[in-house]
Specification:
The protein contains one helix and eleven strands; from the N terminus they run E-H-E-E-E-E-E-E-E-E-E-E. The chain has 149 residues and is mostly beta strands. The protein binds FE2/S2 (inorganic) cluster (FES). This is Rieske 2Fe-2S domain-containing protein.
């Protein structure tokens, strides 16, 4: 029931075409979510393809074409408004929705399960989010590898 949290503005989502944020589910697990424009305004989805645990927005914004979200791994396309996919590897699936409401051009998170945590993605470097084997301390910024050539 909780309240609602203001996320951003409709204009921002429409201009940037996607907006990445992090939520926590009822178990306190953090998940990334995205806002994308759709004809009614904005829709919210968990930032994960339903075929494999692949982020749709890998930190550079969601790739979209004709109001469809394109999975960067195998190219399945999801309807930005319904979350449904009818093509490619993810055919027959639907993205996990995150309830948002638009009011006076402002976008609010109004989901009964997901609560706002912070703007942007999870702190990790964006490969698999599924492994919970990390002991979730707090601190260790899992160091982005220093690549030296
Ligand atoms: S991981 Fe998205 S279509 Fe395969």
């Amino acid at each position: 029931m909780a309240g609602r949290t203001e996320l951003t503005t409709l204009e921002t989502v429409q201009e940037s075409r996607s907006w990445l944020f992090t939520v926590r589910d009822r178990y306190g697990e953090a998940e990334e979510a995205i806002l994308v424009p759709c004809e009614d305004g904005v829709e919210g989805w968990i930032n994960r393809c339903m075929h494999e645990p692949q982020r749709l927005d890998v930190g550079r914004g969601v790739a979209m074409r004709d109001d469809e979200i394109i999975c960067p791994r195998h190219g399945s396309m999801y309807d930005a408004c319904s979350g449904a996919c009818d093509n490619g590897e993810a055919a027959g699936t639907r993205l996990v929705g995150v309830d948002v409401t638009v009011e006076d051009g402002r976008v609010f998170l109004t989901d009964s399960i997901y609560q706002f945590d912070h703007e942007g993605g999870l702190e990790d470097d964006g490969e698999a989010d599924e492994n919970e084997s990390d002991e979730d301390g707090d601190g260790g910024p899992s160091s982005t590898s220093h690549i030296s050539f």
